[in-house]
Amino acid sequence: MRTSFRTAAALTAVVAAVTTGVTTATADTHTGRADDGGYGYTKVRKGVPDSAAHFKVTSPDVRNGGAFPADAYADSFGCSGANQQIRLSWHGAPKDTRSYAVTMFDPDAPTGSGFWHWLTWDIPATSTELGSALPTGAVAGTNDAGQTGYTGPCPPSGDITHHYRITVYALDTAGLQLPAATPAAVTRFTMSTHVIGTATITATARRS
Question: I need a surface site. Which of 29, 75, 136, 188 has the fewest CB within 10 A?
């Protein structure tokens, strides 16, 4: 069977894309955007079931879409903030919630896998807020900085604006049975099959 010039050209383009790693605009990766800092982005799975409910989280320290206050910045990695943990309160979680977890994730970190800044889990289902003191039974996990609990934002100087996703997860289990030293990716993987609801605010940070 003869192959048309148009079909042959299309096949050639597909082969070139696969062998060189170049993708089309509709694929999961892209490079060369003016606002990506020259690193490009790769989409990752969200780790939250599509069936998960949505509820509401707010903070007296930062509004959704707003910038972090200076005292919430890290006191490491070249930053000299107070590393003051963001306070959260939430309502409207699913009635079957048996515990909560909280994370802060930076998808804009130039690591190829983002950066987990904050992980806390086994927060009792009776809790509706999280401050500097953990509720009884809650676990402050180890973040990607190797530190326990919260490490504030500290994007590279001169980099693009980073968007930090602060998420409260409603879980269908009372405990994840994980030690505090569990790597962040393993913690989120373990949580993924237990998430029945989420509430998220996004805060930004940029350093000149």
Answer: 136
The residue with tokens 């910038």 is 67
Q: Are the beta carbons of 205 and 164 closer than 8 angstroms?
A: yes
Contact 154, 73 (CB under 8 A): yes
Cα–chain center distance at 194:
17
pLDDT, tens only, 16-46:
333 333 333 333 343 446 678 888 888 889 9
C-alpha span between 100 and 124 (Å, rounded):
6
Write the CA distances from 8 to 2, 4, 16, 27, 43, integer angstroms. Answer: 10, 6, 12, 21, 30
Question: What pLDDT sits at residue 16?
Answer: 38
- Higher pLDDT among residues 106 and 11, named by residue: 106
